[in-house]
Amino acid sequence: MRDLIFALGAILAAEGFLLAIAPDRMERLMETMRLMGPERLRYAGLLAAALGVGLLALAH
Q1: Any residues with CB less than 8 A from the CB of 19 and at least 6 apart, and which?
Q2: Is 60:3 a contact under the CB 8 Å cutoff?
Q3: Which class for 42: exposed (0-12), middle (13-18), buried (19 or more C-beta within 10 A)?
Q4: By the 8 A CB rule, do 55 and 3 touch?
Q5: Cα–Cα distances in angstroms (integers) from residue 38 to residues 19, 27, 51, in the given order
Q6: Among positive and negative, which fits the CA dihedral 9, 11, 13, 19?
Q7: C-alpha distances in angstroms, 8 versus 5, 22, 31, 35?
Q8: How far is Cα 54 from Cα 3, in angstroms, rounded to an integer?
Q9: How high is the mean pLDDT in each 10-residue block of the chain (60 residues)?
Q10: What is the pTM of this model?
């Protein structure tokens, strides 16, 4: 549970930092994601989740 809370905090901090330093770039990225099809977004999400779990496993 502690790892999950740490991971969520790290995600929020990273996203907040990116939005603070590059809001225009993040807006373009979100627009690109909006235009992607659901299947492609699903695969991107699964890949991101797998990488995140792998990083947590390495850190632990």
Answers
A1: 26
A2: yes
A3: exposed
A4: no
A5: 24, 19, 20
A6: negative
A7: 5, 21, 24, 26
A8: 13
A9: 86 94 94 94 94 86
A10: 0.65
SS3 assignment, position 14? helix
The answer to whether 22 and 15 are in contact (CB under 8 A) is no
Q: What string of DSSP letters covers 20-53?
A: HH-HHHHHHHHHHHHHS-HHHHHHHHHHHHHHHH
Torsion angle (degrees, nearest 10) of CA 3, 40, 23, 50 = 20
The two structure tokens encoding residue 33: 């994601």
Contacts 24+ apart (CB under 8 A), 6-10: 7/52, 7/56
* Alpha carbons 7 and 44: distance in angstroms, whole number: 19
